[in-house]
Amino acid sequence: MTSRQTSEEDVGQAPALTIDALGKKCPIPIIMLAERINHVPLNGVVAVLADDPAAFTDIPAWCRLKSHRHVASHELPQGGWAIHVRRNY
Amino acid sequence: MAYFDAASTEPLHPQAREALISALDAGWADPARLYGSARRAKMLLEQARSEIAEVLGCRSDELSFTASGTQAVHLGVLGALRGRRRAGRRLVVSAAEHSSVLHAGQVHEAEGGSMETVGVGRTGVVDLEAFGAAVRAEGTALACLQSANHEVGTVQPVAEAAGLCAGAGVPLLVDAAQTAGRGPVPPGWSLLAASAHKWGGPAGVGVLAVRKGTRWRSPLPEDERERRRVPGFENVPAVVAAAAALRAVAAEAEREGARLAALVDRVRAEVPRLVPDVEVIGEPVARVPHIVTFSCLYVEGEALLTELDRAGFSVSSGSSCTASTLRPSHVLEAMGVLTHGNVRVSLPRGASEADVDRFLAVLPDAVRRIREEAGVKL
């Protein structure tokens, strides 16, 4: 499981909010993301730090269902990922 | 109690039970011996073989009985790879195959072979173009594709895949565990695996068919049983019961399949209407009649199974919290769909409309309660 990203030009954008969901099992990281995505301005990026393998699939799937944008998932040195999501509305 | 986990195992068919009990008395002797009771066991075994072969669309002498569907897959995959060793050591599989295929592939890798996994789309259908390219690559010894997916019900384009394999001169192993007895097996396979308890037969009987002319070498020590394909004393009574079940379900497959498909259609349509934030998963049309899968956002799969069990429904889940490995289902991951809050409903033969209605009545409250308890305010 390596990092993946949906678009090159989005990747550079610094997160406006980081949610630490390390050690938390799905669906908790998704619930945290859904509750807080509106805390960033429109087009702002939220980074979710998660190490539950389900989050790697489920956060991009949540983005698709909720019409937000999965920007990229970067592997963290300590394990898990920083999963970047852009608020679309 | 409503049993909605037929994709794990179908309840024993009454005709299989009857056949099993009488075969325990008539078919207990060693079919390899030459005295009367042994000849009777041999006759029962060969009669069952020819009946099953007829339903599956192969010759009796191509069909062997194994101890399980999983063992049929293991022997099929590893035996075909051994038999084709001179052609190469590449194995091609779809990402949505049953774990038995992937586990056999891992053994092959550990022995120095390679396995290429071809991706599936959002509904679980294998990427045929990539599959074709993979089987045409130099050194491909075997390709594997399931007839339909066991977790989401999506039917795979087996006939097209078989055409691609034939064009490349590569044998195709079809894992037909979810469709055997429910409809015809698509043509073009070189090896076929299935499992009797999925069609209403007893546990402990798998079938492996190897087409005439397909190279195959046993990965296990050989003996004289099952045309040297499967070592060990045959379970004749269970095989007889498996044949009785297959005959019975195949005879009613068209009618019962249409009935179950209509019930699944209703679940597919009603669940997203009754439950907010739910994703129905898998092919809406090209699917098996009895399986429907959905994932509920913000819901823990294990909690939902527990709630549904309390309400009297036996269903399963591909969510990580329900797996011993604590990893989500590799099928859901490969499809890129929600893996948490996942429920697979698979209807057994005779599943009642009233039970499906009751399921649709209790599901919305079960999901709402779990979301409330988790403090979801969305």
From TrEMBL, chain A:
Gene3D superfamilies: TusA-like domain. It comes from the Bacteria. Residues 19-43 form the UPF0033 domain. Belongs to the sulfur carrier protein TusA family. This is UPF0033 domain-containing protein. The lineage of its organism: Bacteria, Bacillati, Actinomycetota, Actinomycetes, Streptosporangiales.
TrEMBL record, chain B:
Its cofactor is pyridoxal 5'-phosphate. InterPro entries: Aminotrans_V_dom, Cysteine_dSase, PyrdxlP-dep_Trfase, PyrdxlP-dep_Trfase_major, PyrdxlP-dep_Trfase_small. Gene3D superfamilies: Aspartate Aminotransferase, domain 1, Type I PLP-dependent aspartate aminotransferase-like (Major domain). GO terms for molecular function: cysteine desulfurase activity; iron-sulfur cluster binding; metal ion binding; transaminase activity. The keyword Amino-acid biosynthesis does not apply. Belongs to the class-V pyridoxal-phosphate-dependent aminotransferase family. NifS/IscS subfamily. This is Aminotransferase. It comes from Planobispora rosea.
